[in-house]
């Protein structure tokens, strides 16, 4: 069981750092809501630890060590770590799923850019769809089709986040828009980062990214209808609340450099009501054939990992992938080199 004091701290972290998910979580039953808050708190704080600190490499390596400690049954003395360790134990969470998040954050530390939309989706699979897959596991859903649609929803949410944060990311020296899209609009990445301007070209790219997100939001709905009835309102709510951010971006003319799109409490209340209504409708409607669509190629590894139960007391999966181990070794070498440079200075 999650310690109530740890859960309270996790709940506060989500209330302050992710209002959209916090609002949607209110429609989940307590047996799902509590581990979901613990999961989101750990993932959110892990993301912040890398995103908001200058020493991103060290932050990723610390996260690696924290995950290892959690899966060894000796979590760090921190509420989010203890709570996530309880979730891992209760739900036999495959280690490949939080490892995917770790890999995405490692890509951030490497300051990767993505040549194509597929590359952006590769990144989104790790930092967002992996969380969707973990949510499915803690809901007791390991059906491959439902997992594929959960990954669709996670990627859609991340594409929305990228569209919303174009200006904020540019001012921090980051760019997540596909580089081939920039090339097609004759936008030089370095020039854009030096002077981010919301001209028609960049607005078109934001609009284009949101169209991709909307396509995946629509695909995800078939998976929501396949979930247990008790959790459908909360997941429908998350779908509508995040899609509402895209609508707010459109209202601002797809300018996410001058403005940060926001949604309001009254809107969230409306989306929560809509989610409850739609959940009831899905009980009498035939299931959509879209449920059985193949997973996004970039998310197939997540579906495979989550669909395969891991025996309690095992190694929690097949170990870290060679790609992730290579990235971590690269970051370790960079970290050691930086420390030696400081000693020499």
From TrEMBL:
- Cite a single Pfam family from the UniProt record: SQS_PSY
Q: Which UniProt keywords apply?
A: Carotenoid biosynthesis, Manganese, Transferase
Pathway field of the UniProt record reads:
Carotenoid biosynthesis; phytoene biosynthesis
This protein's cofactor list reads: Mn(2+); ATP; Mg(2+)
Q: Which GO terms describe its biological process?
A: carotenoid biosynthetic process
> GO molecular-function annotation terms?
geranylgeranyl diphosphate synthase activity; squalene synthase [NAD(P)H] activity
Please report which protein family the annotation says this sequence is part of: Belongs to the phytoene/squalene synthase family.
Q: Known PANTHER family for this protein? A: BIFUNCTIONAL LYCOPENE CYCLASE/PHYTOENE SYNTHASE (PTHR31480)
Annotated protein name in UniProt: Squalene/phytoene synthase family protein
